[in-house]
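Entry for the shared binder. Reason: the reviewer on the internal report wants the predicted structure included alongside the sequence.
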Amino acid sequence: MQIALTKKLAEAMGIKPSPVHKVINPLFTWTANWTKVWDNRRTEDMLVLVNNATRFTVAIYQVKRKDMKNVGAEMLTAAIRNTLLALNLNVVIIDEYLQLSGDVEFVVNSDRQFTAWVNKAGTECAYHVGNNYNGVAKMFSDTVGVSVNYRLVGYTNNQDGGFIPYKKMFDALAELTGKPVYKYRAFELLVTLDLEIYQAMRRLIFPADIELSQLHKILQQVFH
């Protein structure tokens, strides 16, 4: 796996990335940057990675300058894995993808298009972090990029030719591995809301590993 570092990120990590000696499958290449969130104009504290083939976004928050010594291949690959898991991708596919990717090699970023993509993704992640951490204690998370992957990218003014990053990533990984995208246990739940005059009922199917906070939001949505 090649991870191309922006100059700012490479300097913060204290490493000198290698030039790109060989071109590999872009599905195994990422561009990474170190950026700010919208409510923190003074210091950089978020790492953002964008896949060069699918524009799939992975983000890690908070990573301050004092923490940069701990940033390495293990942290970045864990963030990729955890973000894919958070989107319920078949874990067998994730493991095979990371195995096929090979060892992480940090290289110099010299592609303007990929730089633009990672900067755009950073802005989107910054708003997400600001909205979700506003007024609450900030904590480390390597899945803050999940929501960005649901947004249409690569479109013109009339939205022609656009695509959803997580769908493009999932399709690419399914084609790469020949395995089904989703494979997990699910529960079926019948929920009845007693409104005195009548009852409202909803039948839900959701993954077995759902968090209670997520289930709460789903119940709010299905009952409007």
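Summary line for the report: The radius of gyration is 19 Å.
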